Amino acid sequence: MATESSGGTGLSGAGRHSGGGASDHFDLCIIGSGSGNTIVNHEFNDWSVAIVDQGVGEGEWFGGTCLNVGCIPTKMMVVPADFAASPDRAARLGVELSRGAVDFAGIQQRVFGRTNAISTDGLAYRESNENVTVFREAAAFIDAKHLQVGDRVITADQFVLAAGSRPRTLDVPGLNDPDLAGLIHTNDTLLRIKTLPKHLMIVGGGVEALEFGHIFSAFGSKVTLVHHGARLLRKLDRDLGEAATKLAAERFSVRLNQSLSNVEASETGGLIVSTSDSDGIDYDYAVDALMVAVGREPNGDLLEVGRAGVTLDDQGFVVVDDQQRTSQPGIWALGDVTSHHLLKHVANAEARTVQHNLVHPDAMIATRRDAVPQAIFSDPPMYSVGPTTDELDAAGTHYVSIIQPYSTVAYGWAMVDDDSFVKLVGDPATGKLLAAHVVGPEAPELGQLCTTAISFGISAIEMARGQYWAHPELAEVVENALISLDRAMRHDGDDDSEHRRPTGEG
């Protein structure tokens, strides 16, 4: 899924704190224990630091969303899911594999045995730092220098907002019924469910919905995905989204153009979930569990950052400059609370910027905002970096794009893969890549090659011809895509220069 986020919320929890001194004043206060926690290194040994964080999930785990309920546990679930789904892929190659039983409890024990230990050890380490005090109470700003933490008020010379994001909710009758709480989930709770649901409904059409659909369908659940739009991954490139929609429908039931309208208890012990489509037709589904995966929202509002003079944009994200400074001097922000990307690697990069700028205020650095990639660990996986062609069209940007199928290279023949492709978008004026969108096995690894070219300004032909590509590796599809894009850019203006489907270089 990637999705994938930046830290704990620092918003609620039992009244407890621990660590260094008993002072109410600190040199630095960091709200959130995800990427924000990585700021405090040896350069801050002489600083008095407060870390305020409630933890995430029902266990109030320390260490942020990625470690406890996001990137890491989901990918640790994706790997066994890939194995569980492999009989279908093997069959087209003439190999018959039996679909064995999945030890869901054993997988959970392996996954959370590791992440829980990291969380516990991380908290213990921070509590052992003589200059750090850890607070695990509700937190909200009183003004720009005063933070209410439980029943205590602390002050700080500087604050870092790294409070992350939370699952978005829907205003649907029955969805927030406390009597149904054990059957209705988000990514915060579904992976720790005690029993694998026989029938799981997922509401949403983004990265989380795709990744969880892959995991639970591979593990043996019947999955029904309901999405109000006409295709999945609507925020990503159209060709990628259309491929995702087609491939997901081959794995589980995909119901498009339907919106959630009601949730109620079933007489059999599960749920009756009602939806309606764009024509006003109603549908009822009997399911064992429901996951709401309709995106995430930043936690700045829960911290009452407006009282501190911190500006939010129209979507509730904290506004920062390139140095990660908010509108209020002395208050910085990073990660999901400010970044629309909602990605862990972005939060980490922003944390490095804040870390440097706190220590070196006279030589500040900026966070790089371009060439931000996203990996999606669905079946098959996907990767996207750079703008979509729809975005380029809207901006009036001239470009050329090509689609290179995996089937145009020898390793693609070996895989008998007719669905996977690399889509490249280039600027014919410079010969350089603008974007890459990949669907297929090893997509994140292949796509990263394109991110390298974009980030370092390497032209398509230089990337293709400036190095050896081991034959017959799958990465040759990227090499051939680069050559095809270069050819298309040089022939820009031909009738077929847009969306060529090349046959490859052999």
Automatic annotation (TrEMBL):
Q: Which residues form a coiled coil?
A: none
**Alphabetized UniProt keyword annotations:** Disulfide bond, FAD, Flavoprotein, NAD, NADP, Nucleotide-binding, Oxidoreductase, Redox-active center
The positions flagged as active site in the entry are 471 (proton acceptor)
Instruction: List ligand-binding residues for NAD(+).
Output: 204-211, 295
Task: Specify whether DNA repair is a keyword of the entry.
Answer: no
> Gly residues composition bias: which ranges?
7-20
Name any one Pfam family assigned in the record: Pyr_redox_2
What segment(s) does the record annotate as region Disordered? 1-20
Which Gene3D superfamilies does its entry note? 3.30.390.30, FAD/NAD(P)-binding domain
Per UniProt, the cofactor note for this protein states: Binds 1 FAD per subunit.
Q: Which residues form the FAD/NAD(P)-binding domain?
A: 26-350
- Disulfide bond positions: 66-71
Q: Which GO terms describe its molecular function?
A: nucleotide binding; oxidoreductase activity, acting on a sulfur group of donors, NAD(P) as acceptor
Q: Which residues bind FAD?
A: 75, 336
Name the chain's protein: Pyridine nucleotide-disulphide oxidoreductase
The UniProt record lists the Pyridine nucleotide-disulphide oxidoreductase dimerisation domain at 372-481
Which cofactor(s) does the record list? Answer: FAD
UniProt family annotation: Belongs to the class-I pyridine nucleotide-disulfide oxidoreductase family.
